[in-house]
Design goal:
With 113 residues, the protein is α+β, with helices and mostly antiparallel strands. The protein has one domain: Alpha-Beta Plaits. The chain contains 3 helices and 6 strands. The strands form 2 sheets. It has a 4-stranded antiparallel beta sheet. A two-stranded antiparallel sheet has the order 3-4.
């Protein structure tokens, strides 16, 4: 099953940085065993563009889509047997300590290949 893992900042990171895993090791390990299919760091929040259509009118605005102190700063696409495995993969990511990780299963839409 595929999961999109949003990598987010957090206003209350774990202060014990000695226990934080190394991100390069996490990427290498999960790439090697096929659990990480893709991933990237995102550009800064102030480079975001939000697109909406309301009443048939295109509305384009600069900046992030939400007014919040927590921001999505990256993502990883995971291939795991189930949610339990995805949680274990996320648990070993450095941002589980310094930020937060949100896991969402990818859903196959009807008619998609």
């Amino acid at each position: 099953m595929k999961y999109l893992m949003f990598v987010c900042t957090d206003t209350e990171p774990d202060p014990d940085t000695a226990t934080h895993p190394d991100v390069e090791t996490w990427v290498a390990d999960n790439d090697a065993n096929g659990r990480r299919l893709d991933g990237s760091v995102l550009g800064p929040a102030d480079s975001a563009t939000t697109v909406r259509v309301r009443g048939g009118e295109l509305l384009v605005s600069d900046g992030p889509f939400a007014e919040t102190k927590e921001l999505i700063v990256g993502f990883d696409l995971l291939e795991c047997a189930d949610l339990d495995e995805a949680i274990e993969v996320a648990r070993a990511h450095p941002m589980a300590y310094a930020g937060r990780l949100e896991l969402r299963p990818l859903v196959d839409l009807p008619g998609s290949a």
